[in-house]
Amino acid sequence: MDTLEALTVGILDRIRRDASEAEIEAVLAEMAGAALAEGKTDRFRELQASVKQISQSLRDSALAERSLNLLIETTHDLSKTLELQSLFRTIVSRARSLVGANLAWVTILDEDSGLFRSVASEGYVSPSTAVMTSSFEYGAVSLIMQSKSFFDTQDYLNDTRFRHLPELDKAFRIENIVSLAGFPILADGEVHGFLFVADRYARKLSGRNLSVLGSFALHAGVAMRNARAFRLLSEALDEAQRNRNALIDYIQRVEASAAAHDDMTSLLASGGELQKFLQAMANQIGAAIFLFDDEHGVRNEFISSGYRGSSAALFSSGRFDIAPLINATSQSRQTGRSVVMAHNGDEQCRVIALHGWIGSGECLLICHQGELDAIEIRNLERSAVALSIAKLWNEKRETEKLTASSTLVRHLVLVTLPDPATVSAIRDRLGLHNDETVMLALIVVSRHDRVAQTATIRDCAAKTNILIDLLDDAYVGLGPEGSLRDFLQLLKKAAQDWTAGGILSEPFGDLTTASTRYQQLNKGLQVMTKMRPLEHFVAQSQMDFFARMFETGDAAALAAYMQRVLRPIDERPPRQAEELKRTLLCYLDGQHNIKRTADTLGLHVNTVRQRLESLRHITGGWDDPTRALELHIALRLGVLLEGGGEPGGTG
């Protein structure tokens, strides 16, 4: 095989591999030299023409295939977009990318004004371009409307085929638009809008580009028709749902009114379920009901799903004048009837005094819309009487339960080996299965009002099926893990001008070990509170190490020493100090592995390196194992004392 034949085989192989044009030209140049040397110049010219023809044909085929694939992908995107504004943005973005245009926008008819307005644009510089308007008789719109076919020009501002609109030409000049191509967005023979692509230089779109954009505009028309149909269907479904909800609400209100007397009787027979009763009262008239205590503070609130007023937000926040509430309660107590305290538009705020409770200021505040008829008012007043009776039953039952619960908790945590009867009674009281675990919690609170705090804590415990008692200066809570965490979340929401914190044990199944676990928690609590008042909850596993470390020394002094260890870092701006401490703790936890630290924090490795280098200068380094341990302990203690990563999200 001679040189020219070998080069011919090579260039055909390159064409097969879709080599670049420069690479093929290089081989052709080499073939020209070989042909000249072998005296086959004529043969080379024929071969050169064939090679270029084959190469160009393959490139054209590849380009056509890519254009077709892009059009198919674009059409798929349009077909799955049913929200109109999102569809407009997709049409513009895809049209621009199909032909590599500088700008693209979609214009549709505003039926109210009779003008065509741009509803989505991309690639513009001036804000005025995004809000361009035109009419039937001006600009490219007029030609496209007449022909229902595409329009293109390489010099829009000087094109004489249509009437120019000065405002539109001004926008084109500001945007420096030169070339423009427009396509009607058709569906079922109707023009739904126009798709425009433009460039800031004189550009002649190829026939392939025009064909692709024309096909795309047809698909866009179908997609817009489907989106409009979907919107109309959604609106119809929404309207049907609203009508259905209104009908259901009406039926429920009628049934609730008819069953009011039966509900009261059932409540009294069951011992008076206060929460369900008040919620039922609210639901009967679509109201918001607030239960005020004798200090005129909101003890509970019950808001019906049908309530649409605005007064409830005012009373929930506590931002209201208390004098009208006191006066209305006094009047209601004297007359035995409800009293309208305030009006807020079409909404009334009605007060009913409650009788027979401990204290003298308990009342219900009922916010409802519209006027109540005489039957509804009497139902509310009778409900208030039944509520007083139910409250007396609840107070008696809760007192008995509280006494029993206190005895059980004390016996369990103070007796080293509680008797089987006590353990069995606790399991029955908490509804525990044989394999279900429990947790202990030691809770401390700020002492602004111990009586009120105790009442709040016991109320939260009753709602979540938790045994609670006050031992010395800390509350001891016992219950299933899920219930205990629910209790802590409820306590956090109920605490208003005070905070609660403490220590949680690990889950355990053997109740006979409760005494030992209580002693461990109590010892740890004493150590932790010497370092700083606890205003959040920590797990026993988090504080055991520090409790054992500090129990024989001056915990406050040791904690202060650890704070001094971190002082060089804390002297940096707060945000930077927090980032540096978090990075160093993760680095030390991760056994000095920078990549693991970066992965854990979601940072780039270089960012971690930069932070560690800054820390090295700030702290003097941690190459010394003793220094590293000191920093590690100080950081861990900081997380513990400052409430980071608290168990169960109770912080």
From TrEMBL:
This protein's name: GAF domain-containing protein
SUPFAM superfamilies xref list: GAF domain-like
SMART domains named in the record: GAF
GAF domain mapped to chain residues: 83-234
Annotated Pfam families: GAF_2, HTH_30
PANTHER family linked: CARBOHYDRATE DIACID REGULATOR (PTHR33744), DNA-BINDING TRANSCRIPTIONAL ACTIVATOR ADER (PTHR33744:SF1)
UniProt superkingdom: Bacteria
